Amino acid sequence: MDHSGASGMFLGEYRHTIDAKGRLIIPARFREGLGEKFVLTKGLDGCLFAYPPQEWAEMENKMRSLPLTRADARAFVRFFFAGACECEVDKQGRILIPGNLREYAGIERDVVVIGVSARVEIWSAERWEAYNSQAAGQVEEIAEKIVL
User: Fold this and answer.
1) Residue limits of the SpoVT-AbrB domain (predicted)?
2) What is the layout of strands, in order, in the sheet containing 13-17?
3) What is the pLDDT of residue 112?
């Protein structure tokens, strides 16, 4: 089963460790969909979001359409863009996660990389476990509220 690719769909969960220099192996199944260069930024829930170039362009367009007269919209746009950087995948399939983004996401050693439809999320393993145990009880309740 293909976990990424032309459809831009990312699926699955992969566990990796980050090295002392802050380099992380991007799972092979995600590399093709993300491309050689992609954008990494502060995500929600204390993780990092990785976007392929075309998805990032769509996010930029959405951000541009937000009403800049609203303080909350301005704050979110600043948060999203100020934390962003372009990552380049090296020959070993690794990216360098800048220190400010590692600090934001609490990433020190054990990392979980997950596919979430059009983006990839990078979590510290500890935060991912905590998030999962907290969210597990709410998923059914949320599913009942969302009309599919």
Assistant:
1) 13-55, 84-127
2) 13-17, 110-116, 119-124, 48-51, 37-42, 85-88
3) 98
Structure tokens, 84? 């962003």
What token pair was written down for 30? Answer: 């995600």
* Cα–Cα distance for residue pair 99/2, rounded to 1 Å: 32
Tens digit of each residue's pLDDT (9 = 90 or more) over 22-51: 999 999 999 999 999 999 999 999 999 999
Single-letter amino acid code for the residue at 77? V
Q: Letter for the amino acid at 88? A: E
* Prediction pTM value: 0.88
Compute and round to an integer the Cα radius of gyration of the chain. 16
Backbone angles phi, psi at 26, to 5 degrees: -85, 125
Instruction: Encode pLDDT of 97-124 as tens digits.
Output: 999 999 999 999 999 999 999 999 999 9
Distance, in Å, from the CA atom of 19 to the CA atom of 113, rounded to the nearest integer, reads 15
Question: How many other C-beta atoms lie within 10 A of the C-beta of residue 111?
Answer: 23
